[in-house]
Design brief:
Blueprint lengths: L1 E13 L5 E13 L5 E9 L10 H5 L3 E7 L5 E3 L2 E2 L1 E7 L32 H5 L4 H17 L3 E4 L10 E9 L5 E10 L20 H13 L3 E7 L13 E2 L14 E4 L9 H15 L3 E2 L6 E5 L4 E7 L2 E6 L2 H14 L2 E6 L2 E2 L2 E6 L2 E5 L1 H10 L22 H12 L4 E4 L7 E7 L10 E8 L2 E9 L7 H24 L12
Antiparallel strand pairs: 1-2, 2-3, 4-7, 5-6, 8-13, 9-10, 11-17, 11-18, 12-13, 14-15, 15-16, 16-17, 19-20, 20-21, 21-22, 23-24, 24-25
Length: 507
């Protein structure tokens, strides 16, 4: 049967039922078809334990054969509900028939356009071939320089059995409050979505300060006329130290000549890794604690250091931080300490944090997002639209996209609105209310609360209740329970803030 044959010793064939059989030979077999044509099979295994000759239909499919299954003229029943089929193998044309159907270009709709309006470069080659190439090149070189100065990785051969992670350049433009470009930002990011839990990462968490904490601290700064400074940590996630063995491909555009096959063994964390936020915060916590700071028990991203005649507060949001103190000397001392341990950018007096503009007024501080609203109106060509006093007109039925246009008009009308923190009242005040099933189509009530310090709101919420209240009193108690939880958190947060105890009235 074999036209050529080579004996083989020591090899086994693994089958689908987990059984194994010895392979004694390998050769070439020529099959004669009923049509008179011949079919040559190569690398055919000789397995004596298999009594029937088996041909893989999937392998024949790779060499332009089709398999057709059809019932015979006589139904031959092998077992219950199992019939014997005839199998016919036919030769496929070398050139498969191509469809003549006209292809229609896929459309994503107008909603998708909002994601591509910024027109950020997607690759390093696209950035370096754009009119803004000098700015992108400077940003990319700055990122690589920070990585090299931080000794983030070392080149080595990939150990057997290891798989390196890929990496990608993320390119963004950062804007000022007036909409002009502040800087060009390049970030090298590891493809951490390919990491395997328990192998190259274990614990993960990403703590960030609550926006409520930021508003409370700004309200306290307004009460006591404190200066608020802002700093930014350059390449924050590069400061964390790794405990796991992680390998990454060399970044695009910076492959070392002559060492193209080597990979980067990460010594410190990199953006994109699952454990990068955790490692960064652990490093920052150790630094702050070693310099006499204490971590707020309610918000782990707020750090306080106080003495008998001065105090300093640091609030961290990933890599942005607000610094406020009793005098400028302690603020400058803290800045020097942070600059000693990390690569920092001093931004002076706080201007914009998380898209919120901080303005100093004659009687305190104000928070607004007028610049952000202006950018949105220009982005969607609604800057010249007439303003509207309400977000929804109850007398009109909503049409497609009309509701969104109305909201943009309402934003224009309220663009100058903001939160103003003054010196009165200087205590924490809270209000709670409930709306009991006002709509016959709805069976759940609405809870709401608001807390103020210095005349401005620091915390608020309005949401549907998770259970069905059977009376107005019951809905009020449910709302009061949620307000009580927030009041307890605010009181505990203020307990760890210098002068914060003065804002907590006795209950």
């Amino acid at each position: 049967m074999f036209s050529t044959y080579t004996p083989i010793n020591g090899r086994k064939l693994f089958m689908g039922n987990s059984a194994t059989s010895n392979i004694v030979g390998l050769g070439k077999v020529v099959l004669k078809m009923t049509s008179g044509k011949e079919l040559t099979l190569i690398d055919v295994l000789h397995v004596p334990d298999i009594r029937k000759n088996l041909v893989s239909g999937s392998l024949l499919g790779h060499v332009n054969f089709n398999t057709l299954r059809r019932k015979g003229k006589k139904k031959e029943v092998l077992e219950k509900e199992l019939m014997k089929l005839q199998v016919v193998i036919i030769k496929r044309d070398e050139e498969p028939r191509r469809s003549k159907r006209a292809k229609i270009a896929k459309t994503f709709g107008p909603e998708f356009l909002t994601y591509v309006l910024e027109n950020e470069p997607r690759t390093i080659n696209e950035a370096l071939s754009s009119p803004e190439a000098p700015f992108w090149k400077e940003a990319i070189n700055s990122e690589i320089e920070s990585i090299m100065q931080n000794h983030t990785w070392e080149l080595m051969d990939l150990p057997p059995g290891s798989t390196p992670l890929g990496c990608k350049w993320i390119l963004k433009r950062k804007y000022k409050a007036d909409g002009s470009i502040d800087k060009y930002k390049a970030r090298l990011v590891a493809k951490g979505f390919k990491q395997k839990e328990g192998l190259d990462f274990f614990d993960t968490y990403s703590p960030v300060t609550r926006i409520t904490s930021i508003r409370v601290l700004i309200a306290i700064a307004a009460l006591y006329d404190l200066e608020i400074h802002q700093m930014d940590v350059k390449t924050a996630f590069l400061n964390g130290e790794l405990d796991e063995e992680i390998y990454m491909e060399q970044p695009e555009g910076f492959v070392v000549p002559g060492q193209e096959k080597k990979v980067c063994r990460l010594v410190k964390s990199l953006y994109g890794l699952k454990q990068a936020p955790k490692q960064w915060h652990e490093k920052f916590d150790r630094t702050m604690l070693s310099n006499g700071f204490k971590i707020n028990e309610c918000d782990k991203c707020v750090y306080v250091k106080s003495s008998h005649n001065s105090f300093i507060i640091v609030c961290l949001y990933v890599d942005d931080m607000l610094i406020m103190g009793s005098n400028r000397d302690v603020i400058l001392t803290t800045k020097r300490m942070l600059t000693k341990h990390f690569d920092m950018k001093d931004m002076g007096l706080a201007d914009v944090i998380l898209g919120i503009k901080i303005s100093k007024t004659s009687d305190g501080l104000a928070l607004s997002q007028s610049h952000y609203i202006e950018n949105i109106l220009k982005k969607f060509k609604a800057y010249d639209s007439p303003p509207a006093k309400t977000p929804v007109d109850l007398n009109l039925h909503l049409a497609k996209k009309k509701g969104l246009i109305r909201v943009l008009r309402y934003l224009k009308y309220t663009s100058n609105y903001g939160l103003h923190y003054t010196r009165y009242p200087a205590v924490l005040e809270g209000y709670s209310d409930a709306n009991w099933i006002s709509d016959s189509k709805d069976t759940k009530s609405t809870s709401g609360y608001v807390f103020t310090i210095g005349g401005g709101a620091v915390s608020w919420k309005s949401s549907k209740q998770t259970c069905i209240a059977r009376s107005t009193m019951e809905s009020e108690f449910i709302a009061l329970d949620k307000a009580g939880e927030e009041a307890e958190w605010l009181r505990n947060f203020l307990e760890d803030i210098p002068f914060g105890q003065n804002q907590c009235p006795q209950l």
